[in-house]
Inverse folding.
């Protein structure tokens, strides 16, 4: 029997997990509304809070949808849908999937041919990000306490430390972008494609940031990430034709 990345059983298993997560969301929403009523909050305020939160979740959902579409060609729909819905990270999942597919000698534009390869990619995408589930309850309180102590002594160094941690995280992904640029020395310019795509997305993000600041439109800020991603993906098409 040939392996199929879009086999119905995969959708059944993923659907069960997604329904469980949705049930948790509904449960905590119900508890939050009940608690708000106990505190005497006006019904209109509760409704506005719920509707505002629902609207602002659309922007990150669009970015996640783009990630699912970009990964679905090789992984099918079920696995990306699961990974980007439950403790998922768009930046991590795409890099993990792409790296594991490359190491297996598979093309990211064709479906995975075997169940063994599919399980391997799923494990890479899943096991690594599970570390966060362990580190958050064990380390967050200590890290926050340390940052608060630093901030109490010197606010400037607290900001420097925060920015350094963020830049350290970004640097890990930049290595993936620039990993093949030296091929240009030997006449292979395909390694420059992710660099130009990144620069295109960065420029669009800056434009969105300036537009949001000038116009005071909150929706531009909220949708800056999916807009920059879509522009980067669109730019990759002519760039691939040009540099390949």
């Amino acid at each position: 029997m040939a392996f199929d990345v879009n086999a119905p059983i995969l959708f059944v298993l993923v659907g069960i997990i997604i329904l469980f997560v949705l049930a948790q969301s509904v449960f905590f929403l119900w508890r939050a509304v009940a608690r708000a009523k106990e505190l005497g909050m006006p019904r209109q305020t509760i409704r506005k809070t719920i509707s505002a939160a629902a609207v602002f979740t659309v922007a990150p959902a669009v970015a996640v949808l783009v990630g699912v579409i970009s990964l679905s060609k090789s992984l099918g729909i079920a696995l990306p849908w699961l990974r980007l819905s439950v403790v998922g990270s768009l930046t991590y999942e795409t890099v993990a999937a792409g790296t594991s597919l490359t190491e297996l000698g598979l093309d990211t534009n064709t479906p995975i041919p075997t169940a063994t390869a599919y399980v391997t990619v799923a494990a890479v995408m899943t096991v690594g990000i599970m570390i966060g589930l362990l580190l958050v309850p064990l380390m967050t309180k200590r890290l926050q306490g340390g940052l608060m102590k630093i901030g109490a002594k010197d606010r400037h160094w607290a900001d420097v430390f925060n920015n350094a941690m963020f830049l350290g995280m970004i640097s890990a992904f930049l290595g993936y972008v620039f990993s093949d640029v030296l091929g240009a020395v030997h006449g292979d310019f395909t390694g420059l494609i992710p660099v130009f795509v990144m620069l295109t997305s960065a420029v669009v993000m800056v434009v969105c940031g300036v537009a949001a600041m000038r116009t005071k439109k909150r929706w531009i800020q909220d949708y800056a990430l999916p807009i920059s991603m879509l522009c980067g993906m669109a730019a990759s098409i002519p760039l691939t034709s040009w540099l390949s």
